[in-house]
Give the backbone structure.
Amino acid sequence: MTQSLLSLNGISRTTLESLFSLARALKKSPQKPEFLGQTAALMFFEPSTRTRLSFESACYRAGLGPLVFQAGAGTSMEKGETPEDTLANVAAMRPSVLIVRGDDDLPMLQLAQDFKIPFINAGWGCQGHPTQALLDVLTLQERRKVDGLKVVFVGDLRHSRVAASHLQIWPLFRGEVRFCGPASLLPEKPEVACFDTIDEALKWADVVITLRYQFERYDADEPRSAADHALQTEVRAKFALTRAHLARLPETTLILHPGPVNHGVELDTEVYRDRRSLILDQVSHGVWLREALLRMMLKGELK
Ligand code: NCD
C-alpha cells in the first residue's frame, strides 16, 4: 500500500519512536543519500518559509531532487489552472513523493488516493500540520521526558492546524493539552479545557506553545484594521507572552512557536531570545524529522 502522512490519527507510539530515533541519528551524523535520481514534488498553494525550505533541505540530504512549486506569479495558476489540476499534472511526472500545502478546500484525502504516490500533508487549511507537531515533540524530547507533559497553546486557536495535530499526538504520550486565547478565536466547541488569561495558563503548563494571529484567514467582510486593532489590544492585555512574564516563569518551562513570529504581538523579542525558548531549535529539528520521515516513507517503513 502507498504510504502517506495526512494526519496523526492512528499513528502508533512504536512508529513515532522509530521516526524520532532515526531523526536523532541523522542529527548526529548524516547518512548516505539513498534516493539519488528520484524526485520529490513540493507543492505549496499557501505561503511558507520554514516548512518548504526544511523539506527541501531534507530532500537534498536524502538524495531526492526537490521540484519546488510555490503558487503565484509565474505559474499556470495565473492562467486559471486549479490546484487540483496543477497537482494532477505534477503527479503525472511521477515524483517519488508529493509534499503538499493548501487550504481547507483542497481534497487531500481524495487526491492522495487517486495519485497512488506517497503524499505528505505540509499544512492543510485549519485541519492539520502533522510534521510540525512531530518536530515539536522531537524538539521537546531533547530537553525533557515528554510523557505526561502539560502543554498549553496560547493565541489563535480557531485557525491553528498546528494545535489540531498536537491534539492527535499527545494522547500517545499521556500528555494534557489546554487552550488559551481570545473567546472569538477559540474553536466553537473546544475539545479541551481553556484558560481565560495567559497568567493562569503559565501557572499550569510545562510547555507553552505560542501561536500567530492568522489575520489573513479572518472574515473578509470586517473592516480589517478596526478588527485587528481591537484584537491586538486584547491580545497584549491578556494573551501575549511578554518580557514581564520571564522573571516569574519557572526555569523548566519550555517555550515554542511554530513561526512565523509577530514580535510584540503574541510574543516579545526578549521571550524569543530567552534560554527557555526552543523556537530556532524547532526549525533545526524540522529538517532531521522531515528527512527521517522521507527515508522511512519511501522504504515503506512508516507502519
Ligand atoms: C504555521 C503554518 O503555516 O501552519 N507555520 C508553520 O508551518 N511552521 C503557522 C502560521 O502560519 O502561523
